């Protein structure tokens, strides 16, 4: 039996032990989802993950992949959070080989709490390192899946001076006409974040395209300027 299976069972048992029904209801209501929660808050979840790492060592990519995807397929949402925590923690396995794992998670993600972290913390760094992945991201912009379209923006979120501005501009202008709140918000967010690197660029961009950008996108982009 794979060493990963006892690790996942350990995590699930500990989550069930420390879970709180009132917290679970509140978390479910906040995320507006039918998915069950254990009712385990972030500090407790991180403590459980630390215990699990002491319980089992992850020493190969296949173990990493199994751990991440088995947690991701769990019934309760905190297991998805732990899948992302684990995916991010084991930095030596966050290679090009891991991209299909992250993309699988992204295509199955159902709300901003998972989509945003996968996009900016897991996929974004890989795209910055392996620019050939930008071709895949370009395809997401035309997806019927709104969350993939949002991800095509948020992969740029932490690129700072290494942001591919031509790709980011092109993506923003492709999606700027959408009525979807989460797209408009993401456009503003990614511009606001890039303003920390180049405020004048963002001011100029918003001014140039104010007719295309929604008021929400403009407000978010210029919030700190």
Q: Could you please describe the fold and organization of this structure?
A:
It comes from Photobacterium pectinilyticum. Helices cover 68% and strands 0% of the residues. The protein contains 13 helices and no strands. It has helices at 4-18, 21-31, 42-55, 61-72, 77-89, 99-108, 112-129, 134-140, 146-154, 165-175, 181-195, 199-208, 215-221. The mean pLDDT is 96.
Radius of gyration: 19 Å
Helix content: 55-70%
Q: Could you give a short account of the major beta sheet? A: none
Beta-strand fraction estimate: under 5%
Shape: globular
Count of individual helical segments: 13
Number of strands: 0
End-to-end separation: 56 Å
Helix and strand succession? HHHHHHHHHHHHH
Instruction: Flag low-confidence runs.
Output: none
Secondary structural class: mainly alpha
Overall pLDDT confidence: 96
Protein name: DNA alkylation repair protein
Pfam families: DNA_alkylation
InterPro entries: ARM-type_fold, DNA_alkylation
Précis, in short:
Helix content is 68%, strand content 0%.
Task: For the structure shown, list the relevant keywords.
mainly alpha; 13 helices
């Amino acid at each position: 039996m794979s060493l990963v299976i006892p690790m996942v069972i350990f995590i699930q048992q500990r989550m069930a032990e420390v879970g709180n029904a009132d917290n679970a209801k509140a978390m479910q209501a906040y995320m507006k989802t039918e998915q069950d929660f254990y009712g385990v808050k972030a500090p407790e979840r991180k403590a459980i993950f630390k215990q699990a790492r002491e319980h089992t060592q992850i020493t190969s990519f296949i173990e990493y992949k199994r751990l991440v995807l088995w947690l991701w397929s769990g019934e309760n949402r905190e297991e998805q959070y732990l899948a992302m925590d684990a995916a991010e923690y084991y930095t030596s396995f966050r290679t090009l080989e891991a991209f299909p794992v992250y993309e699988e998670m992204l295509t199955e993600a159902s709300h901003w709490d998972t989509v945003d972290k996968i996009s900016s913390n897991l996929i974004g760094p890989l795209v910055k390192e392996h620019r050939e992945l930008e071709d895949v991201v370009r395809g997401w912009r035309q997806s019927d899946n709104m969350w993939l379209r949002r991800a095509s923006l948020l992969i740029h979120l932490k690129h700072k001076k290494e942001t591919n501005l031509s790709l980011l501009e092109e993506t923003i202008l492709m999606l700027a006409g959408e009525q979807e709140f989460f797209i408009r918000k993401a456009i503003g967010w990614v511009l606001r974040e890039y303003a920390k690197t180049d405020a004048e660029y963002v001011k100029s961009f918003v001014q140039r395209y104010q007719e295309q950008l929604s008021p929400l996108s403009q407000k978010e982009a210029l919030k700190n300027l």
